[in-house]
């Protein structure tokens, strides 16, 4: 069931002088009708959002203070905003912003003292010498942190200092991003900037802040860095040098929350506090969010908040990066909790009450999924002379095209036994070609299996993608899905047949059981380029990483054979 917000919180009407005007009062009273996120989470963590000029205008500001109790300047406290010219600090706008935030009863978080982006050219240019770099880094950090001392509760001291997916994450020095700061000063620049910040504002919590920390390699490098620097500096003003790790959290529907949880737990084991500092979650495109995508986004936010709640003792703050979609740096991907009319999206309700939201909406996503029955049987893995047992199985059409070109398509059959799912796919109309380096662009068939029919927007342990091309070459996602897999392929005139044996990896199959299931036929052109993609049920094009759109396979008992 999709919970429609207006059923929970009926829109109220404007009253002028006690009279109903009949005009719908969307703002600002609509704001007050929504339960407040900061109240909902007052026993867990601070709830934050970003501020920039337009946020201070009503009714946006009303929405901000209704739900959030801490603010981050989206751009206003970055190096290029505060010291565009060497030695000439420009604090007026940032001061005004901080003062308004604090006057509204909110706290302020500082972002950011050192970053390789949004820094003025003179500060940390390519080729800058070491002494000049150290001087610039220390002078900026000390002046800014001292200036806001007492007004900010925490600082992102260093932003994005680690490179993406570093190959040797245990060696954090080798994993550092090759920025001008790093090139001029070496890895010590990190201690230099944290020490300067601690000296200038001993009360503020000092954070290392970065994105993609759900990537386990990047998380490991950050872990190793913070561990070593805190062990080396256990008493930097009465406590370890780095107080916290900021996981920015610019996520997508395909982000695996289990990876977020793994990184959270890894960081928590260091004894530092964690904040989610720039949370947003893309869904849809071109500023369009379908009803289904909106619910998927709600579920994705809800899954994250379940994890955040479970680790709340170590999480100080959760800050969203954008108040409403049209203001987001990723406006076209609709990543925030509120729409441009400041109405709460399904994402808002997913955050507000994660458990209830998941229970009420998970089933809803698959309501239109096609369903097919698999009969019981154990066929030979033979594509040239298929086993006669296939004769009794129903044909499944694989003929919905994902692209404009209508190329290879076909039919499939399924059987199951206690060990495996068996799939036979017969492909027609193919100009057979496997010249592409990418297996998915060769003439090939794919089976998607979600053993527990979990319909998750990411792959879990029970999910797998199995691909066999017309020449019998196989590929798997994840690679471990290869274990015990068997297949055969045979080419006939202008067509080919593939038979697969897919061992069940996490379930004990039994009659009546439902599994998530889908089929795809990839058609290559004579030049080896991708020409067509035909599927059975899931037309999202996301089956390789998202099981929520799969169709459903019912395992049917022997007696129904
Ligand atoms: O949201 C910010 C956007 O307005 C700026 O143009 C952009 C410039 O790089 O920075 C955005 O905020 C970034 C944040 O400061 C650090 N992490 C990534 C954020 C999104 O790019």
Write structural notes for this entry.
It contains 14 helices and 24 strands. With 561 residues, the chain is of the alpha/beta class. The protein has two domains: 315 residues, Glycosidases (TIM Barrel, Alpha-Beta Barrel), CATH 3.20.20.80; 190 residues, Immunoglobulin-like. Helix 7 links the parallel strand 5 and strand 6. Helix 7 packs parallel to helix 9, helix 10 packs parallel to helix 11 and helix 13 crosses helix 14. The N terminus is likely disordered. Bound molecules: ligand 9MR.
CATH architecture heading of the largest domain:
Alpha-Beta Barrel
Largest sheet descriptor:
13 strands, mixed
Helical run tally: 14
Q: CATH superfamily name of the largest domain? A: Glycosidases
Report the portion of residues in β strands.
25-35%
* Beta strand count: 24
- How many domains would you count in the coordinates? 2
Hetero compounds: ligand 9MR
Low-confidence stretches: 1-29
Average pLDDT taken over every residue: 91
């Amino acid at each position: 069931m999709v919970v429609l917000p207006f059923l929970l919180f009926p829109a109220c009407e404007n009253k002028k002088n006690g009279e109903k005007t009949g005009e719908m009062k969307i703002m600002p009273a609509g704001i007050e009708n929504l339960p407040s996120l900061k109240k909902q989470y007052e026993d867990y963590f601070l709830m934050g959002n970003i501020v920039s000029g337009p946020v201070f205008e009503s009714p946006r500001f009303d929405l901000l203070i209704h739900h959030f109790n801490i603010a981050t300047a989206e751009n206003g406290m970055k190096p290029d905003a505060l010291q565009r010219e060497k030695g000439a600090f420009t604090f007026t706008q940032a001061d005004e912003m901080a003062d308004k935030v604090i006057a509204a009863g909110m706290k302020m978080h500082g972002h950011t003292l050192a970053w390789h982006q949004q820094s003025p050219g003179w500060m940390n240019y390519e080729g800058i010498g070491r002494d000049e770099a150290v001087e610039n880094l220390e002078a900026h950090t000390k002046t800014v942190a001292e200036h806001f001392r007492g007004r900010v509760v925490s600082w992102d001291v260093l932003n994005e200092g680690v490179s993406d997916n570093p190959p040797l994450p245990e060696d954090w020095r080798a994993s550092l991003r090759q920025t001008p700061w790093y090139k001029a000063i070496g890895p010590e620049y990190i201690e230099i900037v944290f020490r300067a910040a601690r000296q200038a504002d001993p009360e503020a919590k000092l954070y290392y802040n970065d994105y993609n920390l759900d990537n386990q390699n990047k998380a490991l490098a950050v872990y190793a860095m913070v561990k070593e620097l805190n062990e080396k500096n256990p008493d930097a003003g009465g406590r370890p040098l780095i107080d916290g790790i900021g996981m920015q959290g610019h996520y997508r529907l395909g982000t695996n929350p289990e990876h977020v949880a793994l990184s959270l737990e890894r960081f928590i084991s260091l004894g530092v506090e964690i904040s989610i500092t720039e949370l947003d979650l893309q869904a849809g495109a071109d500023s369009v969010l379908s009803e289904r995508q909106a619910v998927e986004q709600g579920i994705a936010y809800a899954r994250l908040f379940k994890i955040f709640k479970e680790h709340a003792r170590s999480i100080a703050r959760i800050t969203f990066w954008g108040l409403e979609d049209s203001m987001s740096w990723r406006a076209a991907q609709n990543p925030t909790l509120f729409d441009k009319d400041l109405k709460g999206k399904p994402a808002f309700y997913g955050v507000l009450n994660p458990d209830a939201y998941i229970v009420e909406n998970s089933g809803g996503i698959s309501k239109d999924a096609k369903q097919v029955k698999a009969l019981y049987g154990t066929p030979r893995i033979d594509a040239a002379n298929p086993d006669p047992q296939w004769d009794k199985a129903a044909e499944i059409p694989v003929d919905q095209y994902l692209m404009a070109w209508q190329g290879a398509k076909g039919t499939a059959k399924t059987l199951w036994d206690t060990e495996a799912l068996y799939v036979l796919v017969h492909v027609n109309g193919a100009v057979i070609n496997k010249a592409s380096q990418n297996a998915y662009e060769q003439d090939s068939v794919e089976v998607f299996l979600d053993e527990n029919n979990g319909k998750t927007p990411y792959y879990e342990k029970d999910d797998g993608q199995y691909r066999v091309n017309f020449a019998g070459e196989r590929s798997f996602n994840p690679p471990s899905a290869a274990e015990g897999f068997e297949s055969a392929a045979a080419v006939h005139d202008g067509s080919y047949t593939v038979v697969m044996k897919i061992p069940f990896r996490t379930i004990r199959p039994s009659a009546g059981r439902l599994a998530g299931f889908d089929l795809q036929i990839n058609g290559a052109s004579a030049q080896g380029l991708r020409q067509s993609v035909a599927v059975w049920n899931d037309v999202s094009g996301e089956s390789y990483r998202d099981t929520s759109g799969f169709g459903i396979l019912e395992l049917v008992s022997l007696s129904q054979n």
